[in-house]
UniProtKB/TrEMBL annotation:
Signal peptide: none
Gene Ontology cellular-component terms listed: plasma membrane
UniProt membrane topology term: Multi-pass membrane protein
Swiss-Prot/TrEMBL keywords: Antibiotic resistance, Cell membrane, Membrane, Transmembrane, Transmembrane helix, Transport
Localization (cell): Cell membrane
Taxonomic placement: Bacteria, Bacillati, Bacillota, Bacilli, Bacillales
Protein name per its UniProtKB record: Multidrug export protein MepA
PANTHER family documented for this protein: MULTIDRUG EXPORT PROTEIN MEPA (PTHR43823:SF3), SPORULATION PROTEIN YKVU (PTHR43823)
Highest rank taxon of the organism: Bacteria
UniProt organism field: Alkalicoccus luteus
Molecular function in Gene Ontology: antiporter activity; xenobiotic transmembrane transporter activity
Amino acid sequence: MLAMSVYNLVDTIFISYAVGIDGVAAVTLAFPLMIVMMAVAGALGMGGASVISRRLGAGKEKEADHVFSNMMMLVVLIGVIGVIGSFTLLNPVLALFGAGETVMAMAYSYIFPITMGTVFFTFAFTTNAVIRAEGNARFAMITMIIPSVLNIILDPIFIIWLNMGVQGAAIATVISQASVTFMVLKYFISGNSSLHIRPALMLPAWRIIKEVSVVGMPAFARQVAGSVMMIVINAMLIRYGGEFYVGVFGVVQRIAMITLMPMMGILQGMQPIVGYNFGARQFGRMSEAIKLSLKVVTIFSFLVFGAAMVIPDWLMRIFTQDQAVIDAGVDALRIIFAVAFVIGIQVISGGLYQALGKSRPALILSMARQVLFLIPLVLILAPVIGVWGVWIAFPAADILAVLLSLYFLRRDRKLFFPEERHPEEKENLQEKHA
């Protein structure tokens, strides 16, 4: 998810300057389909990583290999489905978004190469989560940094010098992801990993697939909810403001991505530590990791809030010099980020349950902000006060979502902080809260 967001961010910056606000609107319209790709890869990667980290923590290396081999089988299958979908589903799906002919054509030229490269994205995102799960955070970071830097280098070449516009941005992204695929393959084949791809274990094991799917479902639901949210918001903006406001929202959304990346990085670093120590019954270490993560994301959330309130025009100018877009974006940014200081709690809470394999509360918290709160609020407020209704729906949804997160965290406090339990209760932690 982080890598895809980086690629989309870089693409948007170059497209904004080389193509204009219509290009940004096109990428924004196509982004929900990219989110679906992230949802599938995220579910497989985060679900599998959670299962693998707990297997490794319990000393069950052979079972961890079995899980990993089944994950690789699913990566290939998803890649094939992505190619088929590129030729059969893209045009009908994009037609439902309701944009004008020019913007829609650019959206298609952007998303087609990306869906054709589904196997690269899925493999990269899945294995990155697995590499973190086995404790090699350094190499996991390298596999994110190198393709991101490569994408920054290739974007101006394809978008500007080769004059390929939004399609050039997509091609640069696919090439960048293909590069990391070969890096990671070498890592696993060379024996540097504690995990092994065993062809004999790649045959579908439904028990493993079910366990990975159940644990990964919250990540999938969260991303798909984000896709549905974007489709609804884009439709409301087109209806009550026009394609111009889709472009404005596209810029604001990229700023939101920048702010979320460090918090998602903290979450992804926390999850394997929590999962491993939970499996190893090292509850003190697990508790320390949770407390530290909550403190860091809370501090960062306040910094994000301050930046959005004090320098919104500077943030907008990262992506565009169009004064009309900047003026509209400053208003949108200040409203959307009005309660940004609570975002960190939302990020950590859902991912925390997922790390422990508690799929039900993880799913609820993953869906709450976007599906239970934001989408209904947008549908209620936009017809009444137009574009401003879309912006106001965001802080309202954030307030409701953080209240729900705090309720769950308080209810299950002794699960996350076992030092508050009696010694005999600690032995039953893994059986409780299923």
